[in-house]
Amino acid sequence: MTKRQQLPVALTIAGSDSGGGAGIQADLKTFAAMGVHGASAIACLTAQNPKRVVAVEPCSPKMLRQQVEAVFAELRPAATKTGMLFSAENVAVVARFFRPSPSTRRRPQLVVDPVFIATSGARLLEPRAMRVLTEKLLPVATLVTPNLAEAAVLASRRIASVDAMREAVRMIRDRFGCAVLLKGGHLPPATRRNSRDRRAGRQAVDIFYDGKTELLLSAPFVEGIRTHGTGCVYSAAICAALAQENPLPKAVAIGKNVITTAIVQSYRVGKHFALGNS
After folding, report:
1. Which of 232, 239, 255, 256 is catalytic?
2. For the whole model, what pTM was predicted?
3. Is 183 an active-site residue?
């Protein structure tokens, strides 16, 4: 009899991207590429393409909860990530589900990609949901992965250099108690050159901090390619690495390698670029 491979399960709770480049679609492709079984709970539908988000419609809180419960009942995830949750009610559903309780089994590690400002500038989280995100969801997270714009909101400060990123991750860690991965890919090249780290002028630099360990994660900046979904793929790769029982700092480093490769291997689709998944 053939012995079947046992795969760990990773769960994504996020929005559906009709263009296929971000959200649930990108997460599941990343999970598959990394050798984990991907489960999903759709928090909202979007009408979008690589250029813009046309419309957003949230899933009902009841249906979101039932999706997550159904997955946990038979395919218990080894790690979970959240992406676009959009509504205050759906952020609250996820926060309540992952809140520690004596009556529930220990929840898997939770990676929160806060997803409230798109690369295009579109708002992807209802204004009233921000308070629920910061007061309820981030305190139960293992890791939060903001981009520069999102981190500026979470840290209540402008972030315009790698040195400012180092300060911001400490502020976010102190405020919310979870580890932080601050993605600095959108720092202007001139700003990166002004950092104390001389490599930053020619690198895409991210900072990880968990209260003890700080990692400066850098990779050559890929010029001339504009994609969306990088934050989704990055956080999904970290989630998959956690599902494979890697410690958090190593999982973050694996995620950095995955997203760097995905950008390098981007392909053309229509008039746009899409991230590679090899």
Report:
1. 232
2. 0.91
3. yes
Where is pLDDT greater, at 227 or 100?
A: 100
SS (H, E, C) the chain: CCCCCCCCEEEEEEEEECCCCCHHHHHHHHHHHCCCEEEEEEEEEEEECCCCEEEEEECCHHHHHHHHHHHHHHCCCCEEEECCCECHHHHHHHHHHHCCCCCCCCCCEEEECCCCECCCCCECECCCHHHHHHHHHHHHCCEECCEHHHHHHHHCCCCCCHHHHHHHHHHHHHHHCCEEEEECCCCCHHHHHCCCCHHHHHEEEEEEECCCCEEEEEEECCCCCCCCCHHHHHHHHHHHHHHCCCCHHHHHHHHHHHHHHHHHCCEEECCEEECCCC
In the residue annotation, 230 being an active-site residue is answered as yes
Q: Does domain 9-274 have CATH number 3.40.1190.20?
A: yes
43-95 pLDDT, tens digit each? 999 898 888 888 889 999 999 999 999 999 999 999 999 999 999 999 999 99
Q: Percent of the chain at pLDDT above 70?
A: 87
Residue 30 falls in the annotated catalytic set: no
Is 185 a residue of the active site? no
Indicate the domain borders of the chain: 9-274
* Active-site hit among 82, 142, 145, 230: 230
Per-residue pLDDT for 193 more than 60?
A: no
pLDDT at residue 194 greater than cutoff 50: no
Which residue among the candidates 46, 82, 145, 227 is catalytic per the annotation?
227
Q: For this structure, is 46 an active site residue?
A: no
Which is the catalytic residue, given 229, 239, 255, 256? 229
